Amino acid sequence: MADSVAGDWGPEMGNPAESDRPLLEQPLESRVLYSGRIVHLREERVRLSDGSEALREVVRHPGAVVLIPWDSQRERLILVRQYRHPAGRIFLELPAGKLDPGETPANCAARELSEETGFTAGRLEHVRSVYTCVGFSNEVLHFFLAEDLVPGEPSPDEGEWLQVVDLSLAQARTLLREGRIQDAKTMVGLHWFLDRLDHGTAP
Q1: Domains of the chain, with CATH numbers?
Q2: What pTM does this model have?
Q3: What are the percentages of helix, strand and coil residues in the chain, rounded to 5?
Q4: Interior CA angle at 55 toward 52 and 61, to 5°?
Q5: What pLDDT score was predicted for residue 18?
Q6: Pick from 121, 172, 115: nearest CA to 146
Q7: Among residues 76, 98, 88, which one has the least CA distance to residue 168?
Q8: Taking the CA of residue 82 as centre, how many other CA atoms within 13 Å lie in the half-sphere pointing to its CB?
Q9: Alpha-carbon span 130 to 32, nearest angstrom
């Protein structure tokens, strides 16, 4: 069944087959409820396939990048510790940041890596893109593997306080196994990287 479902879509899961038409919603109108520095909340009215209408509350977000910095010389992953006000606690995370207007994900990845960790990467590879919460937001995270790292001085944004840390592969596995990494993007990125290593496609 899984193969059949996947086969109905294009390579990026963005082109529905004819059989999927009953699942689609037609946008009718949209109004802004709140517009902030990072997110914009809209109420959107849509028409369903049976002709009825529904209201959707949607958080519009410009998208962001997530870095998986791999220091192959020392065999260390580079992460950051940061206090996150909405959750009220410090998290261990992969470096990340939102796209500026008109900025490409690759340019954003290079900028955020330098700003948050001080490292520059001789090689950046886009490895996947992931939607964070499709139930109410269009935010998409673009994951980049950063290699051939050259150290430097971090220059975080104003009001941003970070602590750069490095982890061995064994430490990363232990933290994941014990549930001590609770940031979703970091779990996705680390699991992808470790799976790549385990299946013989190491950087």
Answers
A1: 2-60 (no CATH), 64-198 (3.90.79.10)
A2: 0.88
A3: 25, 40, 35
A4: 135
A5: 79
A6: 121
A7: 76
A8: 21
A9: 25
Q: What residues in the chain have per-residue pLDDT under 50? A: 1-11
Burial class (CB in 10 A: 0-12, 13-18, 19+), 68: buried
pLDDT score at 203? 59
The pLDDT of residue 20 is 87
Find out whether 163 and 92 touch, Cβ atoms under 8 Å.
no
What secondary structure letter does DSSP report for 137?
B
Q: Decide if 178 is catalytic.
A: no
- Residues contacting residue 46 through CB under 8 Å, at least 6 positions apart: 25, 26, 27, 28, 53, 54, 55, 56
What is the phi/psi pair of residue 98, to 5°?
-85, 155
Check if the beta carbon of residue 124 is closer than 8 Å to that of residue 109: yes
Distances (CA, A) of 20 to 12, 45, 54, 102, 137: 16, 20, 19, 33, 21
Q: Of the residues 53, 158, 160, 178, which is catalytic?
A: 158
